[in-house]
């Protein structure tokens, strides 16, 4: 088997492992039998390899991706915002404290520490503008270290793909 030996890569991964990871991130609901057939290995080998990939932490969790367009008929569209946050002080402890605070907020779907420019980019989804205001007061207005908040509101989601590129 050809081993993947890229700088910064994980030792012991081969092309079959990458095929398994690709198949899992496309459809994690595949049975072990179907997954084994897709990557052309035996079911016992497939089971063993997938367990090893999970044990390595490469598969964090399995979730269902819901259709916001179809759910909007029942729940309303909601409000999605991309928010730039600049802190007043960027010491490691203050950056980590902010990350911990936003990680606890259910409305925050994604949080990135970025450079240059703002310190953080958040992707937030709330029910409506009053809920957005309440969340911003809780997370930003009451935090003396938040210097600047700049929000962009989504009018349409054109693409959403949570896959990690494995074949760059």
Task: Describe this structure as you would to a colleague.
It contains six helices and four strands. The protein is of the alpha+beta class. Strands 2-3-1-4 form a four-stranded antiparallel β-sheet, with helices on one face. The radius of gyration is 20 Å and the shape is globular. 12% of the residues are buried.
Q: Mean of the pLDDT scores?
A: 91
Question: pLDDT under 50 segments (min length 5)?
Answer: none
CATH topology of the largest domain: Alpha-Beta Plaits
CATH class of the largest domain, named Alpha Beta
Coarse structural class: alpha+beta
What is the CATH-assigned architecture of the largest domain?
Answer: 2-Layer Sandwich
Give the number of helices.
Answer: 6
Q: Sum up the overall morphology in one term.
A: globular
How large, in whole angstroms, is the Cα Rg?
20 Å
Secondary-structure element sequence?
HHHHEHEEHE
Strand-helix topology:
Blueprint (H helix, E strand, L loop, with lengths): L14 H12 L5 H8 L3 H13 L12 H8 L3 E9 L4 H12 L4 E6 L6 E7 L2 H13 L4 E8 L15
Antiparallel strand pairs: 1-3, 1-4, 2-3
Structure summary:
The protein is 39% helix and 18% strand. The chain has 168 residues and is of the alpha+beta class.
Features:
168 residues, alpha+beta, Arc Repressor Mutant, subunit A, four-stranded antiparallel β-sheet, 39% helix
């Amino acid at each position: 088997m050809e081993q993947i030996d890229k700088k910064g890569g994980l030792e012991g991964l081969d092309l079959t492992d990458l095929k398994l990871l690709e198949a899992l991130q496309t459809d994690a609901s595949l049975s072990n039998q179907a997954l084994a057939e897709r990557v052309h290995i035996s079911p016992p080998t497939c089971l063993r390899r997938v367990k090893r990939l999970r044990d390595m932490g490469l598969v964090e969790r399995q979730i269902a991706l819901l259709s916001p367009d179809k759910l909007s008929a029942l729940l309303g569209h909601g409000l999605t915002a991309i928010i730039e946050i600049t802190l007043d002080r960027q010491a490691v402890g203050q950056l980590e404290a902010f990350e911990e605070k936003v990680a606890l907020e259910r409305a925050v779907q994604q949080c990135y520490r970025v450079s240059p420019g703002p310190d953080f980019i958040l992707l937030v989804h709330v029910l409506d503008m009053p809920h957005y205001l309440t969340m911003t007061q809780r997370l930003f207005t009451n935090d003396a270290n938040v210097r600047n908040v700049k929000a962009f509101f989504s009018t349409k989601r054109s693409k959403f793909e949570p896959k990690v590129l494995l074949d760059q």
